């Protein structure tokens, strides 16, 4: 389990690699689960979500350890001839390479105006199906794709279900390189204890758009909408990992099987539907 991030000295926007490495990007309260168990649950949720694809669908491909299971299942069904006319739009260069290697037909980076269905993962899901995303580093692209999607299906294992966003996971915030010390200070003043995300070699993690990510430990977020508005109003902050009101369905895989949660697009109410 990752350590709780510690505040950095004021005016410092990064820490020695030895300090940063344990919190990249990381949960901070979640109980441990064996990796084999977690991987099996992710696979089960992803396979179920892919059942909603139909021939001729334009599908958004999410990024991360859960979403890659969906990519593999889509590739399997496509290779079997079950999804003629399928076209895919990847949310990251990493996923685009995996999809291309699997033989999936890709749309170029300009993208479609409208996406029929996107299957993606999440780092944390609250009772209203609001999300924290960005652990895979593709939060900007993922949010662009989510907003263009008619239907956003999120696949998670049960360890990602949370009573309140920020309880289990740090909030990623993507910033441009220019003036990033000011962004660190702004996030610090908001109570986020920002830590610069790094790679295994200790160098800053760079997103597909050439930006940096601060992982922020706000703790339980009382008002995600207010925090999201504050972050969006700050010049230099490109995007944040709060995905509010964007998930239409959440597929949860647990030790007792699958659960399918659906949000009403009009009322926002969440109900559990039968697993088909």
What does this structure look like?
With 276 residues, the chain is of the alpha/beta class. The chain folds into two domains: 17-30 and 164-239, Alpha-Beta Plaits; 35-159 and 245-264 and 268-272, Rossmann fold. Helices cover 25% and strands 21% of the residues. The chain contains seven helices and 14 strands. The strands form three sheets. The chain has a seven-stranded mixed sheet with strand order 2-1-3-6-12-13-14, with helices on both faces. The chain has a four-stranded antiparallel sheet with strand order 8-9-7-10, with helices on one face. Helix 3 (67-79) links the parallel strand 1 (58-61) and strand 2. Helix 2 (35-50) packs across helix 3 (67-79). It is globular, with a radius of gyration of 18 Å. The two termini are 35 Å apart. The relative contact order is 0.18. Mean pLDDT is 88; it is low at 1-33.
């Amino acid at each position: 389990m990752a350590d709780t991030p510690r505040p950095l000295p004021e005016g410092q926007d990064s820490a020695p690699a030895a300090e940063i490495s344990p919190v990249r990007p990381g949960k901070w309260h979640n109980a441990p689960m064996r990796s084999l168990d977690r991987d099996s649950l992710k696979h089960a949720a992803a396979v179920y979500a892919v059942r909603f694809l139909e021939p001729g669908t334009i599908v958004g491909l999410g990024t991360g350890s859960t979403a890659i299971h969906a990519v593999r299942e889509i590739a399997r069904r496509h290779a079997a001839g079950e999804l003629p006319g399928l076209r895919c739009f990847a949310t990251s260069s990493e996923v685009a390479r995996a999809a291309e290697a699997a033989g999936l037909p890709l749309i170029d980076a300009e993208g479609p105006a409208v996406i029929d269905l996107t299957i993606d993962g999440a780092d944390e899901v609250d009772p209203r199906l609001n999300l924290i995303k960005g652990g895979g580093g593709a939060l900007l692209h993922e949010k662009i794709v989510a907003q263009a999607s008619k239907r956003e299906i999120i696949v998670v294992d049960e360890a990602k279900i949370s009573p309140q966003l920020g309880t289990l996971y740090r909030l990623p915030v993507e910033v441009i390189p220019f003036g990033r010390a000011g962004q660190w200070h702004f996030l610090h003043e908001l109570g986020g204890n920002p830590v610069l995300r790094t790679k295994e070699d200790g160098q800053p993690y760079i997103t597909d758009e050439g930006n940096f990510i601060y992982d922020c430990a706000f703790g339980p977020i009382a008002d995600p909408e207010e925090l999201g508005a504050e972050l969006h109003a700050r010049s230099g902050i490109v995007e944040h990992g709060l995905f509010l009101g964007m998930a239409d369905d959440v597929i949860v895989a647990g030790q007792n099987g699958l659960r399918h949660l659906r949000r009403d697009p009009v009322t926002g109410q969440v109900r559990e539907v039968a697993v088909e």
